[in-house]
Please model this.
Amino acid sequence: MTSASGDLRVDLPVHGRVVLVVGGGVAALGRIAALRAAQAEVVVFSADPVASVTDFAERDLIVLHQRDVTEGDLADAWLIYAATGDVEADADIVSRAAALRRFCLIGTGLPSREPAGGRLKLGGRVVLVGGGPGDPGLLTLTGMRAIQEADVVIADRLAPLAALQYVRPGAEIIDVAKIPRGEFTSQEEINRLLVAHAKAGKSVVRLKGGDNFVFGRGGEEWQACAAAGIEVQLVPGVSSALAAPALAGIPVTHRSLNQGFTVVTGHVPPGDPRSTLDWAALARTGTALIVMMGVANLPTISATLIEAGMDPATPAATVADAGHPGQRSVRASVADIARVTSEAGISAPAVTIIGSVAGFDPLAPE
Model:
């Protein structure tokens, strides 16, 4: 953690402690996510939070108060972060906290003045960075370096948002969260932002969760940039199709259990005119079936697989918020996994694994 002057690093035992963050905009996003990754109990005060902060609250990962912070709020805090992104507003929070004898840090990378003539521009580019399943520790070194060098970072809610605390001073962060049945930034608008900022000569990082090319629409973003003559660099990420099962103790392949896995999307149900999947064939592949974005349609998916011949007793599991402190998982048969998932209150983002590996027990004999 860095002081307001940037010249001191201190480690504080925030695990399990209540930390108050004043600010819920993009300037606070990286700090909020980092505190969650450190398993602090995060309480945010912001009258106008960005979509990703609202999403954290809706998933019970933080407590969000959409109002201004009061003296009573500050007095009750163990640690305070002033993270409004406004220099004067943050300084005021620090002053108010000091008057109450409460420890307060400025928790944002505040914009700095550019040197005379501005930064040297070498031409715009877009770097498509796969951020992994959410834990910033699973972001690649190449991805982190791209974030640190970027002029603009365009991030969605499933990216490792804690990495945003390492953007260089003066860099712009844009939140383009796509929340199921909630706030939504269209893909067309995201493409426009990528092209517009790159054409302005900026280095733009598109930070996504998982891997850009595994249901991440990275191909569409590459096409939009290519059509505009924008240089694109690719940084692969750890796909949640593999990471979520692994983090829940489920290998997607195991020599004595299966000989492969199949990754599909469940965002449209079987039988829907938009679906191009042969679910009956999937029921007979003998591979583990990894279903992304399928929580809402899990009842129909399970029923269709069983109707097509899959044994109702086939093991299954659903893993939610993989790589986050709030990660949860449930296991059941394919016949019961939809009900058990619903009863556990699990919602997106989640991955469902169907197949013998979902019943893996490391202590069981081969």
